[in-house]
Write a structure and sequence with these properties.
The chain is of the alpha+beta class. The chain has 2 domains: 4-141, C8orf32 fold (Roll); 172-225, no CATH class. The chain contains 6 helices and 8 strands; from the N terminus they run H-H-H-H-H-E-E-E-E-H-E-E-E-E. It has helices at 4-13, 16-24, 28-37, 52-58, 63-76, 127-170, and strands spanning 82-86, 95-102, 105-109, 120-124, 189-191, 206-207, 210-211, 223-225. The strands form 3 sheets. A 4-stranded antiparallel beta sheet has the order 1-2-3-4, with helices on both faces. The chain has a two-stranded antiparallel ribbon with strand order 5-8. The protein has a two-stranded antiparallel sheet with strand order 6-7. Helix 3 packs antiparallel against helix 5 (63-76). The longest helix has 44 residues, at 127-170. The radius of gyration is 34 Å and the shape is elongated. The N and C termini lie far apart (78 Å).
Length: 226
């Protein structure tokens, strides 16, 4: 489907303006530059699968639409082209690129929001060898996102726990004595010095490494825990 007859059929369908647009895209590098400048199609009104003609009109495209446009541009100039679908897990999205050959080696034209998943120079001996360069980077990128998401969720959980602890401690006041709780990890209780403070009448409760309350009969004393 990339022979002379198919190229002529494609050219016969184009308007003069479309002819001028395709005529300028006479190398894979120029095609890559053109589709990179197109704003991404986020499909805000639902899934789309626009033709090359629609992409030229709307000046927007996602990876599949740009790949089909790249194929059409290569065929317009009599160059063979292939589409390659890099399938992903159900939790992710496939990535579609346009393959081309120069000097017997494979390269790729690619439209994406992530620079590492775009163009591939024609230096690969097979489509599989080329595809593996996308698979490794896409996997590492996904792991980086997952790690960052986990870190953000974990930090938010820690902040929520700290807020809950502060709220709980503020409710421990019972008239004259305020109880302060120290963080876990072997914290030691340090009682503020006072002449009338009788150590024999102070009881520091320890539970699971947490310093508890201190009470003194007759006077109220604050207990500082470090």
């Amino acid at each position: 489907m990339t022979g002379t007859a198919y190229r002529n059929r494609l050219r016969a369908l184009l308007t003069p303006a479309e002819h001028r647009a395709f005529a300028r895209l006479d190398t894979p590098q120029k095609i890559q530059t053109f589709i990179e400048k197109l704003p991404p199609n986020f499909e805000l009104k639902g899934d789309t699968c626009m033709s090359p003609r629609s992409v030229l009109k709307t000046r927007t495209a996602h990876c599949a639409e740009a790949a089909v446009l790249a194929v059409a541009a290569l065929i317009y100039h009599g160059k063979p082209a292939w589409l390659m679908d890099i399938q992903a897990l159900p939790s992710d999205q496939d990535h579609i690129v346009t393959l081309f050959r120069e000097r017997g080696l494979w390269g790729a034209i690619s439209k994406t929001n992530h620079a590492v998943l775009r163009w591939r120079d024609p230096i690969y001996r097979s489509p599989r060898e080329l595809m593996m360069t996308y698979a490794r980077i896409q996997s590492e990128w996904r792991q980086e996102i997952d790690a960052g998401l986990f870190e953000a969720i974990f930090a938010r959980a820690l902040r929520a726990r700290a807020l809950a602890d502060r709220t709980r401690r503020s409710r421990l006041a019972d008239g004259q004595t305020r109880q302060f709780a120290a963080c876990a990890g072997g914290a030691e209780a340090c009682i503020a010095p006072a002449a009338a403070l009788d150590p024999g009448r102070i009881k520091i409760a320890r539970r699971r490494g947490m310093a508890g309350a201190a009470r003194a009969q007759g006077q109220a004393h604050e207990v500082m825990l470090v």
